Amino acid sequence: MQILPFYMVCDESGSMSGPPIDAINSALPELHHEISTNPTVADKTRFALIGFSDDAKVLQPLVDLGELAELPALTAGGVTSYGHAFRTLQQCIEADVAALKGEGHEVYRPVVFFLSDGVPTDSGWEQSLKDLTSSRYGPKIIAFGIGEADTATISQVANFRAFMQQDASVSPAQALREFAASLTRSIVRSAGSIPADGGSGFTLAVDDTVPGFSTVSLDKL
């Protein structure tokens, strides 16, 4: 079977407290439902959840969501630090892909939805990002910036799509709900392009526009 490993990596810094973290936690059950109840998506997708601030925690190891009753909740605290997140993500991806291949599966290039609402406070995180993206199983990264996130930083993280919260009139809670809706649509729509016959023509169907966000053109960076 062909498996798409999908990682959600979310900022849990103190600035996410309140509406931002509440919004994404309220959206996780919807994501869980969409994936686990859609046979095509559930069969082809494995999902993991990583939260980060000044450390990084694997809140949900890579799993078939159909086997879970619910996803764990994110909790806000600490400061925004990217290095730990990228190092933890690389370790997870390498171990997960090896395990899936060991079970006899074909594995598509992993996909990461990365969400941050601030500017990283740690130095040297760029090297951790480079190590991740240049590794054997370097993922496609779709980065979303909200709140005080910096456009240049979000665009540096992304290598597939980058989106920024458009203006202050869109609350972090609204922005995160739009993000969660886009994420869910992308997985559901993409499932139909994962070949059932062993082909390799998979293309992630990510929206080019997301309500409440501006799109960062990666080819102009």
Automatic annotation (TrEMBL):
Domain VWFA: 5-183
Pfam families registered for this protein in UniProt: VWA
Classification via PROSITE patterns: VWFA
SMART domains assigned to the protein according to its UniProt record, in alphabetical order: VWA
Superkingdom of the source species: Bacteria
SUPFAM superfamilies: vWA-like
Alphabetized Gene3D superfamilies for the sequence: von Willebrand factor, type A domain (3.40.50.410)
Protein name stated in the entry: VWA domain-containing protein
Species: Streptomyces armeniacus
